[in-house]
Amino acid sequence: MDLELVAVALITGIVTGAVFKTVGVPIPAPPDFAGVMGILGVFLGYKLAEMAPSILL
After folding, report:
1. pLDDT, tens digit, for every residue of 12-43?
2. Rounded CA separation 55/57 (Å)
3. What per-residue confidence (pLDDT) applies to 57?
4. What is the tens place of the pLDDT at every residue in 45-57?
5. Using an 8 Å Cβ cutoff, are 41 and 51 in contact?
6. For 1-57, where are the E strands, in sequence order?
7. Residue partners of 21: CB distance under 8 A and separation at least 6
8. How far apart (Å, rounded) are the C-alpha atoms in residues 8 and 32?
9. What SS3 class is residue 6?
């Protein structure tokens, strides 16, 4: 994992979120922590399913 890319993505997200709030536009993401965790769960499930064949063989 490239931590520099993760940091740039986080900073970009923070700036974008602040701009959306300032302009009064709803964010294109879940508005609460449970929604964000759901997205994280989908991502982790995808990665686990992607890794499963190599682990089982």
Report:
1. 999 999 999 999 998 888 878 998 899 999 99
2. 6
3. 65
4. 999 999 888 777 6
5. no
6. none
7. 27
8. 22
9. helix
CA 38 – CA 55 distance, rounded (Å): 25
What are the φ/ψ torsions at residue 29 (nearest 5 degrees)? -150, 165
Q: Which two tokens stand for residue 42?
A: 């989908």
pLDDT at 8: 94
Measured CA to CA, the distance from residue 47 to residue 55 in angstroms comes to 12
Query: What is the token pair recorded at 13?
Result: 């997200």
Region class of 26: left (phi > 0), else alpha (psi between -120 and 50), else beta: beta
For residue 1, pLDDT over 80 is answered with no
Q: Whose CA is closest to 51, among 7, 40, 43?
A: 43
SS3 call for 57: coil
